[in-house]
Specification:
five-stranded mixed beta sheet; alpha/beta; Nucleotidyltransferase, domain 5
Length: about 120
């Protein structure tokens, strides 16, 4: 399982971004191997919606879940269509939300609940 977190910095002590596309980095963590990959949220030169670009980037990196504060309905649909679980309304540091995830304390969003 690979988990992506939208963050304001490139490490585990960075704060989670309250907006998916508003982050400066995406951190992809694999709890089994404990490997951490860091991707800049740099959509310079990309055509179209920055949220959609970032969602497609994470899908191409084979993430299974995304943890963030909030995202657009169109971004949520890209994740859903790719089979990626989305955990919204989160805050704290990257380390804190990953610990919540590994302890089963996060609730996966359904489209109906996420945007009602």
């Amino acid at each position: 399982m690979r988990i992506a977190v939208s963050a304001f910095g490139p490490n585990l002590t960075s704060r989670l971004s309250p907006r998916f596309a508003g982050c400066s980095h995406f951190l992809v963590f694999d709890p089994e191997t404990r490997e951490l990959e860091v991707y800049d949220n740099d959509h310079t030169g990309q055509a179209g919606d920055s949220s959609a670009w970032a969602a497609r980037l994470l899908a191409s990196k084979k993430v299974n879940a995304v943890i963030t504060g909030r995202c657009r309905p169109s971004t949520f649909k890209i994740f859903s269509d790719a089979g990626i679980y989305v955990f919204l309304r989160q805050s704290g540091t990257v380390k804190e939300v990953l610990e919540k995830y590994t302890r089963g304390r996060l609730r996966r969003e359904s489209r109906e609940l996420a945007f009602s």
